[in-house]
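Hey all, quick one. A colleague (J.T.) asked me to put the pyridoxal-5'-phosphate job into the tracker so the inputs and the structure tokens live in one place instead of scattered across chat threads. No bug as far as I know, just bookkeeping. Sequence used:
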Amino acid sequence: MNTQEIIDIEDKYFINTFNRVPVVLDYGEGMKVWDIEGNEYLDFLAGIAVNCLGHNHPALVKAIQEQAEKLIHISNIYYNEPATVYAKKLIDATSFDRMFFANSGAEANEGAIKLALKYSGKSEVLFCGGSFHGRTFLTLSVTDHPEYSAPYVKNLPRGFKSVPFGDLDVIKETITDETAAIIIEPVQGEGGVNVLDKEFYKGLEKLCKDNDVLLIVDEVQSGFGRCGSLFAHELYDIKPDIMTVAKGIGGGFPMAAFLATEEVSSGFVPGDHGTTFAGSPLAGAVANAVFDTIKSENLVENSRLMGEYLLSKLNDLANKYDFIKGVRGAGLLVGLELDFEGGDIVGKMFEKGFLINCTAGNVLRFAPPLIVKEEEIDALVEALDEIFAEI
Ligand SMILES: *Cc1c(COP(=O)(O)O)cnc(C)c1O
């Protein structure tokens, strides 16, 4: 089938939820992907911060192939070794004591919120302005995108209150005896790549402790080296009660998890939560391969260094063009804020062979695979410069 045939069939048969770029991607390797017509693209989006090892990394491909030949899925009624080995590895690398496998970011957040409510016996959860935590009913209730939740307002669960991202005073005033938890992204992704400082997160940690409120960090986008440390909350030197992860965990294989302290984990007993697919031997094998490769290839360090490099290059552009309102980020989650809608720039970058996207209307987002090198960043910035020069 050619590109137009595929687009026509999709438009007819898929429920109409995505505004897609009119391209059919076919294969990939490292930083590059190719469409079915043979055009090449440098991928600075990585499936929205998912393909942390780049495309078709041999270690990931091998793990999938070998485990698929052995055992793909059983049930959580039984034990399996790859998932168990991975759980120990992940826990050893963090400040948490226990974990639960899930399938997607929203599901991990859903489970984390259920755990916080069950453990505390309270009924309220706070969330931040600009937040994105998913599209299920529970996660929509803590997501500050009214356009996603408006049609269901009457059906959404109650007990969720929005507080401004970064305003400790308002958060303090909003906490009541019924506040179970606050859920927050250590670096906001969908909200426009918004970064707060260590002082805020330290203050939030203390506020939570003093008021018996659980701190849930949503590291679905910011985790696994994305922000220049294994997990972004480590940048602020805080110890949350619960953490959720997804996007980068499987390098493209769909999986997720939430982690909690021993104390908070005790809120769940058998029967309180579950999943059919998650934590399969295949998911375990994949996660092990991704985690080991992040370590062996020093990708957390590369994310930090290349993130700094990208930020400095984009700052040069910001000095050159008045319409750039700001450049910000952590590691390889970087945003460039324009004073106009960014959709056209994304389209023009696509024509030049670069995959990027735009979030919060006017923030160009760059979230390349963690393997990105200086020369690829140079090429990206040069292409942006050419487009900006014509404005
Ligand atoms: C993408 C994202 C989610 C939702 O993940 P899904 O896998 O799409 O359900 C939740 N939180 C954050 C911070 C995200 O970036």
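Adding what we noticed when we looked at it: The longest strand covers residues 324-330. The mean pLDDT is 97.
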